[in-house]
Amino acid sequence: MLEIRGLRHEYAGRTVLSVPEWSVAKGEASLVIGSSGSGKSTLICIIAGLIAPAAGKVSVAGRDIAALGAVERDALRARSIGLVPQTLHLIGVVSVRDNLRLAQRLAGLARDDGAIDACLASLGVAALARRKARELSVGEAQRVAIARAVVNRPALILADEPTSALDDANCAKAITLLVDQAGACGATLVIATHDQRIRERFAARLEL
Amino acid sequence: MSIPRLAWAYLAARPFATALSVAMLAIGVGTLALLLLFTGQAEERLNRDARPVDLVVGAKGSPLQIILSSVLQVDVPTGNIPLAEATRLAANPMVASATPIALGDTFRGRRIVGTDASYLALYGATLAQGRVFAQPMEAVVGAEVARRFSIGTDAELVGSHGLGATGPAHEGRRYRVVGVLAPTGTVIDRLVVTPLASVWEVHEAHHDAGAAPEAREITALLVKYRTPLAAAIMPRQVNATTSMQAAAPAYEMARLMNLVGVGVDVLRAFALVLMATAALSLFAALMSALQERRYDLALLRMLGARPAALFALLACEGVTLVGAGVILGLVLGHAAAGVLGSWIARTNAWSITGYAWQPAEGWMALAVLAGGALTCLVPAFQAYRRDPAILLKR
Prior knowledge:
Strand content of chain A: 25-35%
Oligomer: heterodimer
């Protein structure tokens, strides 16, 4: 599902990320772990096609990200990749349901409120569907951000530091949610984190 | 959740800033719309009133005053001219028609014009009721006079001496209304029209001394040319060879509009400054929205939105604000014209209406929309160029 060969990224003439070789199989859950500034978020951005690497090849679902044009890259990200950013950012001025509808629309999918409601229900936040996203608590926002990442049933879910601000109990819950949701839609899961608490839950790891 | 709906959600989320931007633009558009309505309707009205007449011949004095008094019926005449001299001029081969008018009295602020039936023909007036006057002290009233004072045929009118509203009444000499004119949209709607002889009769009685027929006077002669060549010859001929003054309505109207135009231009410049201020405020609001929403925009890119969609989002917000400002401004401008028109109508015989539409308003609205769209371009382009990775690198 995800293959990386000879990846290198530079910033201001300095190499900030180097991944000689790494791959994650379809449906597998994997961890990218490293300290702050080790290039985890940069790696997520490169896999998502948001920034271009200085060198190397990244393939998602058999497609070389660098070989795609801007339009195809955006389409691939919208349709095949679900992203959960560290900040759990949602569009605050619209409802939870509209946040998920937006993800459907930007992926070029037909509006499917049934899928949205099922997704919210599976994460235990169905009652929040009509609430404005800015009115949610951190815990609620986290579940909605995960719902948005999985609503289009992507092939790959990328989560950036999903547990950094959580206590032990909520950290475990968040990881369980991500793993369960990825499993439910058959997606490959890649979690980038510096959080050593979740290290042992994943056998497949990339150390940066 | 389409881009326009998202744009609307952003606007609705900051109602005060949205209302302020729309209100500022609406005030500018409304002021311009009011000016266009006022100048457009005034110009149309003046032209409608003046169009049937090629030349006005009155007593020596200001040509503009002659037009204002004898055609538009808003100023006092420069004096009287001898009927005999006017009659000689009317016989000139270059004259197709010559309509004499005699002014001097009013009925409740509306002028009583002594003339002949050709005056009605000049303005294409037709009768809504009754018949045309046939003898002295018979009168026909214009549509506005009839409506405003509820006058029908067989009513009796008492004129007041002078063209002001407070002259002494000619109680002993009453006019009998024999006809009511249909509306024409011209000056005649606001007049009481009677034979010349009525005016002479009333004033001779008033001054207690009858004038000899050959010494009789009129206020002005309204001339229509038989040939366009007359426009180059007759005014000079009248001014040089008679005791009378010639005034061309077309020329004097243009001069009047130029005089009034200075004030209108100042107001127009003021309205344009208001609109420029509104455009700056819109620009500031969109730039501030861009800054506030930098992570939202990055998120949209992360979800797969094309840069063009972010451009469209900002442009949609801007165009919605401008569109709302233009619509509200036009409504305000027309409402203000209606209110101002009612206020003017209380003291004047003519007014403006808010129910009319000037073609220039359409061009103004398009220009404001285009200007507003241009104002949105910079923030929209900045949205287009947003780094989509900032959310993950935050």
